[in-house]
């Protein structure tokens, strides 16, 4: 592929309307989420993301060993 072809493809991709991923609205929220619910959600998010990463980093030397 030549550069002008790639450039045309890129421009056409930018022009196309993509389906919105999130339902964004300027209105206030329908349901109020309490601080406790937010804390639980954030804790679950951090554990789900950082837990496996921390496990791998903590056991990195074990993974390096060839048995």
From TrEMBL:
Please list the GO biological process terms of this entry. Answer: mitochondrial electron transport, cytochrome c to oxygen
Nucleotide-binding among keywords: no
Query: Pfam families, per this entry?
Result: COX8 (PF02285)
Give the protein's recorded name.
Cytochrome c oxidase subunit 8B, mitochondrial
UniProt KW Cell division keyword? no
Tell me the SUPFAM superfamilies matching this sequence: Mitochondrial cytochrome c oxidase subunit VIIIb (aka IX)
Task: List the GO terms this entry assigns under cellular component, sorted alphabetically.
Answer: mitochondrial inner membrane; respiratory chain complex IV
Membrane topology, as annotated: Single-pass membrane protein
What main location does UniProt list?
mitochondrion
**Protein family membership:** Belongs to the cytochrome c oxidase VIII family.
Where's it found, cell-wise?
Mitochondrion inner membrane
Q: Which pathway?
A: Energy metabolism; oxidative phosphorylation
Where do the TM regions start and end?
Answer: 39-58
Q: Keywords in UniProt for this one?
A: Membrane, Mitochondrion, Mitochondrion inner membrane, Transit peptide, Transmembrane, Transmembrane helix
Q: Which domain of life is it from?
A: Eukaryota
């Amino acid at each position: 592929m030549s550069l002008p072809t790639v450039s045309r493809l890129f421009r056409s991709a930018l022009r196309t309307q993509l389906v919105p991923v999130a339902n964004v609205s300027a209105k206030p929220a329908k349901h109020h989420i309490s601080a406790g619910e937010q804390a639980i959600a954030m804790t679950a998010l951090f554990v789900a993301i950082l837990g496996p990463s921390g496990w791998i980093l903590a056991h990195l030397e074990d993974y390096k060993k060839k048995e």
